[in-house]
Every structure is written in C-alpha cells, then in structure tokens.
Design a protein that fits this description.
With about 375 residues, the chain is α/β, with parallel strands linked by helices. Helix content is about 45%, strand content about 20%. The chain folds into 2 domains: about 120 residues, Reverse transcriptase/Diguanylate cyclase domain (Alpha-Beta Plaits, 2-Layer Sandwich), CATH 3.30.70; about 250 residues, TIM Barrel, CATH 3.20.20. The structure holds ligand C2E and calcium ion (CA) (3 copies).
C-alpha cells in the first residue's frame, strides 16, 4: 500500500531507481534512454542472436522482482517489453522504436512480466498508429476539431460552469472519440498543438458563455503540457489576449499529474492559483494520488470519476467511496463535482448526500455552443 508519508517524491524515486536497475542490468556498451513518461528504450547493437536478446530481456524483467524501497515503504512494479528486430527491413530508425512500441502494447495485454517480438502480424496496429498521426496532423491544419460544452450544475440546477470537450469529425472516418485520439496525440507530441487550439477556442468562446450567464469554463489539460517550460506563460497570454479573468478558468488535470515530478508540479499549480486560476483534479479515485496530496496541493475542485457515480443508489461500494470523498472535500474546503450523473436515482442520492455540483447526461450532454445557448434559454 502507498502510504501518505511517501510525500511527493514517489514517482520520481521509482523512475530513477528503475533507470538505475535497467542500466546496471544492461551491458555497458548498449544504449538506454528514457522515452516518455514511464517507458525506456534500449538499443542492443552488440547482440546477434535472438537467444541472446531473450536472455537479456529476461534479465531485465528480473530486475523488477525485488520490490522498491522508498523510505520505509515497499512498492512492487512490473514491466512489459516489446522487441523489434533490425533484421526486418525498415525505412527509418524511428520505425524500429514504433515497432517495439506496438509489440509492447501487445505484451501488455498479457500482463506484467510479458515480452513480445514485433512481427508483421502487427503491421496493422502499426499502420493504424502511423495513419492516426497523419490524420491528427491534418485535423490540426484543416481545423477539423470542434469544442463542445457540458454544463456543471448546482443543487438548484443552475449552471455554474461548463466543461470544454474536444470533438473530431473526420471527413472520411466520421466521429473519432477524444478517448481514442488524445492518448495517441500525447504519445506523438501532437497534444501540444491540439491543446493550444482548445485553449484558444475556449477563450474565444468565453464572451458568449458569459452572455449566457455561465460564470466559469473548465478546460482539460494533458500532463504532457506540464512538462513544458512555456506552459504557464501560454495560459497567461491566452487569457490576456481575450481579456478574461483567470478566475473564470478552471484547469482540469488528472490526479496522475500529481504523482510525477511533483515538486515542479506543485510549484506550477501554486503559480497558477496565485494568478487566479482554479485547479480541478479530474477522474478522482482512478489514479495513484494519495489523499495526502489534497492537504498540501493547491486544489480547488475534485471531480469524482464516473465509475464511482454509476449506480451509486444501489452499488454500496461506489456509494461508500463517493460519501468518503464528499466528507473529505467538505472538511478540506474543496468543492466536489460528481461526473457522469445519468439517472434520477443517482441524482437524488448525490443530492441527499450534499454533493453540491454535478455533471452528466441526466442534465445535458456536451453540445456545440449554439445548442448550449438554446438549452440555457429553455
Ligand atoms: P473527462 O475529462 O473525464 O471528460 C468527461 C467525459 O465524460 C466526456 O467524454 C463526457 O462526454 C463524458 N460524460 C459526461 N457525462 C456523462 C454521462 O452522464 N455518462 C457518460 N457515459 N459519459 C459522460 P469525452 O468528451 O468523450 O472525453 C473523453 C476524455 O477525453 C475526457 O475525459 C478527457 O480526458 C479527454 N478530453 C476531452 N477533451 C479534451 C481536451 O480538450 N483536452 C484534453 N487534454 N483532453 C480532452
Ligand atoms: Ca475533464
Ligand atoms: Ca473526468
Ligand atoms: Ca477521463
């Protein structure tokens, strides 16, 4: 169990320790690099046979048998490995990494400790990734994105905010869900361009939303954005350009942001809050953040993930978790939003347990701005 006293450094410690373990398990002459959040790439240029590679891969995986000790806590991790063989023809070295990546995702389906060679049977997965990247590239250039808005309501069913949610209507493929393309864009770096677009559009729509009497707008931010030095300057510039008060913008981040590089994150969040922005923790309960964070981090809003809201009226486990979160937020003076409220029964249950804010299909689906305006005027 991850205990509160671990503080903020756990994610960093684990990454550093992992890098050290992998480094010491690899022959000196082979290259090891960190690749994205928790992925590493090893380039094995001194091995000739598959058997040698597999022996080394097993050796690497064995490095995870020993639990990590961080302060007085034991943490167990597992890893999966994807392997691409330079014996298969390729056009560009990047292709090798992509193949290893696709193979790793295959291995992941079989759980921790698994490894998988890339084979042409996986070409389709690979093709899909490459194609998707090209699609996203076009979508950015040809402005195929739209921004929808979903109301967040209080107990009197007044709109206190809207959440901005991106939509992508591809000319041939039709609607592509953000749940599908955002993770891909995060891995390709295209998320930065997408996020810039979202922020710009949200700020551009702010005036109309204000006319509709909607006090704040909630915007989703990807963890990747927090790793960029210009992150805060960009948000500042955006609100200044559109003459928006920071207090009218809520920055939604998932709790996993809090687990990594947290000293820097804490500093960034403090900066943002000092500027007047509100911070919401999205999908609360699905990640690894320890409750301790909430006491120390500048957080204004907790969004209880839909998975805990579903059937809350008759799922006792969900109900217990949600009540716990509500009690905690009220004690900490943080606002709670229940996400994904779909039924009258869920709504009623949450109301009875003093959940002040809710969002979900029960009230309104995400809509384009014009439709939202109609809904508000009804
Ligand atoms: P999220 O931030 O948790 O957004 C809430 C999701 O729940 C939205 O899905 C919304 O349409 C859906 N939802 C709201 N009420 C209900 C309900 O009552 N029932 C059900 N079944 N679903 C409901 P959506 O729009 O498909 O977005 C999925 C995820 O994609 C978002 O989850 C967010 O993580 C990401 N995303 C969407 N727009 C953006 C964006 O502009 N930037 C970034 N970085 N991520 C985004
Ligand atoms: Ca969100
Ligand atoms: Ca959410
Ligand atoms: Ca989500």
């Amino acid at each position: 169990p991850i205990n509160d006293s671990l503080g903020h450094r756990i994610g960093d410690d684990i990454l550093v320790q992992t890098a050290n373990r992998l480094r010491s398990a690899l022959p000196k002459q082979e290259l090891l690099a960190r690749f994205g959040g928790d992925e590493f790439v090893a380039v094995l240029s001194h091995l000739d046979h598959r058997d040698q590679v597999l022996t080394l891969v097993e050796h690497l995986l064995n490095q995870f048998h020993e639990p990590y000790r961080i302060e007085d806590i034991e943490v167990s991790l597992s890893a999966t490995v994807g392997i691409a063989d330079s014996g298969l023809p390729f056009h560009h070295p990047m292709e090798l990494i992509q193949r290893a990546d696709v193979a790793m995702y295959e291995a992941k389906h079989r759980g921790g400790g698994a490894w998988q060679w890339f084979s042409h049977a996986m070409d389709e997965g690979m093709q899909l990734q490459v194609e998707m990247r090209a699609f996203i590239h076009d979508a950015i250039n040809q402005q195929q994105f739209e921004l929808f808005y979903q109301p967040i309501i209080n107990q009197k069913e007044e709109i206190v905010a809207v959440e901005a949610l991106i939509r992508w209507q591809h000319p041939q493929r039709g609607f592509i869900s953000p749940a599908e393309f955002i993770p891909l864009a995060e891995r390709s770096g295209q998320i930065i361009a997408i996020s810039d677009w979202v922020l710009e559009r949200a700020c551009g729509d702010r005036a109309r939303l204000k006319e509709l009497g909607i006090p704040t707008i909630s915007v989703n931010f990807s963890p990747i954005q927090f790793y960029r030095d210009d992150f805060i300057d960009k948000i500042k510039a955006a609100v200044e350009n559109f003459a928006i008060k920071p207090g009218e913008i809520v920055i939604e981040i998932t709790e996993n942001v809090l687990v990594r590089d947290s000293e820097q994150i804490q500093w960034q969040l403090e900066q943002l809050q000092e500027l007047g922005f509100s911070i919401a923790i999205d999908d609360f309960g699905t990640g690894f953040a320890s409750l301790r964070y909430l006491g120390t981090l500048p957080v204004n809003i907790l969004k209880i993930d839909r998975s805990f809201v579903q059937n809350i009226d008759h799922n006792q486990r969900n109900a217990a978790i949600a009540r716990g979160v509500l009690a905690m937020t009220s004690e900490l003076g943080i606002k709670a939003v229940a996400e994904g409220v779909e039924t009258d029964a869920e709504h009623e249950y949450l109301r009875k347990h003093d959940c002040a804010l809710m969002q979900g299909f029960k009230f309104c689906k995400p809509q384009p701005l014009d439709k939202l305006a109609d809904w508000v005027k009804e």
